[in-house]
Design brief:
The structure holds two protein chains of two kinds. Chain A is mainly α. Chain A has one domain: MetI-like fold (Orthogonal Bundle). Chain A starts with a helix and ends in a 15-residue tail after the last helix. In chain B, the strands form three sheets. A six-stranded mixed β-sheet of chain B has the order 8-9-10-3-11-12, with helices on both faces. Chain B starts with 5 loop residues before the first strand and ends with a helix. Classes of the chains: A mainly alpha, B alpha/beta. Chains A and B meet through helix 8 and helix 9 of A and helix 2 and helix 3 of B. The complex binds adenosine-5'-triphosphate and magnesium ion. Adenosine-5'-triphosphate binds next to strand 2 and helix 1 of chain B. The site of adenosine-5'-triphosphate has 12 residues of chain B, from strand 2 and helix 1.
Chain lengths: 236, 258
């Protein structure tokens, strides 16, 4: 009943899509974090900035990611300004469109998560930095963002897991990542069940590894939230 | 030196929070090696006064000098603010400030807390900063806790770490805002002991405190604040044993009795 040969063959083909899945996930997550931090800071910085960020978050969280991918892929080309800009060689490519849409989307969620992290930074820690003569930049780099990041990490981890799964939507704009590969195999073989099970197993493995990695990072970054390790020698 | 230098000087400070006028023209000086204690009832403006010195609060009126240099202030859109952020940061790093609630950086070990400013603000070589931090931590009795996180320390240990952090900046003066008020009674002594040794070293210190006996012992000058004004000031022998004003007498009496 179980056609192990077919499963193995399918799995192998699907893994051919893994590099694209990984690229889309990693790049959009990393770029998304940078953008999220900038958005969160902009939101604090001024009234106008705050309004802009709130509108941005409102729109990107309030519409389906699939729609956003379509809009970037099919929509942007309608503007002559963009067609004639130096960005067009990129925005013509589904790969870049998917990256752009995924990044903009995760940045919206991320900026709210970062905002929560920033709000949780104790005012005393900031005052101690200020009174020691730290410049704003040093203070953000050394005190505020590290504390905010640690605070935000659990929630941000969930968002990253969601992003990995969301890359499957990129198949809709012709990208042959794991889900795209799955479609292709099914349209040849009509064996949807086995193929999707294999694809599911790949995503499950990815998200499992990511969750573990986030957990390990959290553990590393927040020793102060645990009971002290019994000091053997005691020196780091 | 003929006469000791004035390390910290504020004159005619006025500070209000909304409708509440907290400081109504306060002037104060600390010479090199002097220990100035600031006492007064809760709400009298002691913390506000101390916080004005490194410009954690910006006074609406008045002048602040650190090592003779006036902190440049300006008025913008009806608000008084620092005119030159660089100058403020430079002057701030010449002062060590110790908070009632320690305010250590939780994500760093004790040692990292202490070397943070020397390395990342004052740009001193890390190895040198670490060596100095280690000796400072030993001095405040935390040699065993270099790699511990603040959350794993008692309040008294955290406050001593905070003092080491302030000392690591090689400050011209140390400012203490009720450094023992957040501590369990049995932990007060260890912090006062460290502060006493600093006073004996000849450090310039401004101390807001409710520990009258300690203040009487270590101060060279004492200031009694009431309703945002200096009601009385003088040598500790006067302020703590023979106050001239009725309010000061009652205040000291009440606190010495405890
Ligand atoms: N940031 C602020 N905003 C509004 N009011 C403030 C602020 N800081 C202090 N105050 C008010 O100013 C007054 C003086 O406060 P301050 O903290 O200087 O008093 P204190 O003498 O240090 O008192 P305590 O012994 O309780 O610490 C108080 O009435 C306080 O409520
Ligand atoms: Mg106070």
């Amino acid at each position: 009943m179980i056609d192990t040969d077919f499963l193995a063959e399918t799995l192998l083909k699907l893994l051919g899509g893994l590099p694209i899945t990984l690229e889309l996930s990693t790049i959009s997550i990393l770029a998304g974090v940078v953008l999220a931090v900038l958005l969160a800071l902009l939101r604090q910085a001024s009234r106008v900035g705050g309004l802009f960020v709130r509108a941005y978050v409102f729109v990107l969280r309030g519409t389906p990611l699939l729609l956003q991918i379509f809009l970037v892929y099919y929509g942007l080309g309608q503007f002559p300004l963009i067609r004639h800009s130096i960005l067009w060689p990129f925005l013509r490519e589904p790969w870049w469109c998917a990256i752009l849409a995924l990044t903009l989307n995760t940045a919206a969620y991320g900026s709210e998560i970062v905002r929560g992290g920033l709000a949780a930074v104790p005012t005393g820690a900031v005052e101690a930095a200020r009174v020691a003569g730290m410049s704003r930049w040093t203070m953000y780099r050394r005190i505020i963002l590290p504390l905010a990041f640690r605070q935000a990490l659990p929630a941000y981890g969930n968002e990253w897991v969601i992003m990995v799964k969301s890359t499957s939507l990129a198949s809709i704009v012709t990208l042959m990542e794991v889900t795209g590969q799955a479609y292709a195999i099914i349209s040849e073989t009509y064996r949807a069940m086995e193929v999707f099970l294999c694809a599911g197993a790949i995503y499950l493995t990815l998200t499992f590894l990511l969750t573990r990695a986030i957990g390990a990072l959290e553990h590393r970054l927040t020793p102060y939230l645990r009971r002290p390790e019994t000091t053997l020698g005691g020196l780091a | 030196m003929s006469s000791p230098e004035i390390v910290v000087a504020v004159s005619n400070l006025h500070k209000r929070f909304g409708a509440l006028e907290v400081l109504k023209g306060v002037s104060l000086e600390a010479h090199t090696g002097e220990v100035v204690s600031i006492i007064g009832a809760s709400g009298s403006g002691k913390s506000t006064l101390l916080r004005c010195i490194p410009l954690l609060e910006v006074p609406e009126e008045g002048e602040i000098r650190i090592s003779g240099e006036e902190v440049a202030l300006r008025t913008r859109g009806g608000r008084r603010e620092a005119a030159d952020a660089k100058q403020v940061n430079r002057l701030r790093s010449q002062l060590g400030f110790v908070f009632q609630s320690f305010n250590l950086w939780q994500h760093m070990t004790v040692l990292q807390n202490v070397v943070e400013v020397p390395v990342h603000v004052q740009r001193r070589p890390r190895a040198e900063a670490v060596a100095e931090a280690e000796s400072l931590l030993e001095k405040v009795g935390l040699a065993e806790k270099l790699n511990a996180y603040p959350s794993h320390l008692s309040g008294g240990q955290q406050q001593r770490a905070a003092i080491a952090r302030a000392l690591a900046m090689r400050p011209q003066a140390l400012l203490f805002d009720e450094p023992t008020s957040a501590l369990d009674p049995e932990l007060v002594g260890e912090v006062l002991r460290v502060m006493r040794s600093l006073a004996e070293e000849g450090r310039t210190m401004l101390i807001v405190t409710h520990e009258m006996a300690f203040a009487a012992e270590v101060s060279s000058h004492a200031v009694f604040l009431a309703d945002g004004r200096i009601e009385e000031e003088g040598p500790p022998s006067q302020i703590f044993r023979d106050p001239q004003s009725e309010r000061c007498r009652q205040f000291v009496q009440r606190h010495l009795d405890r």
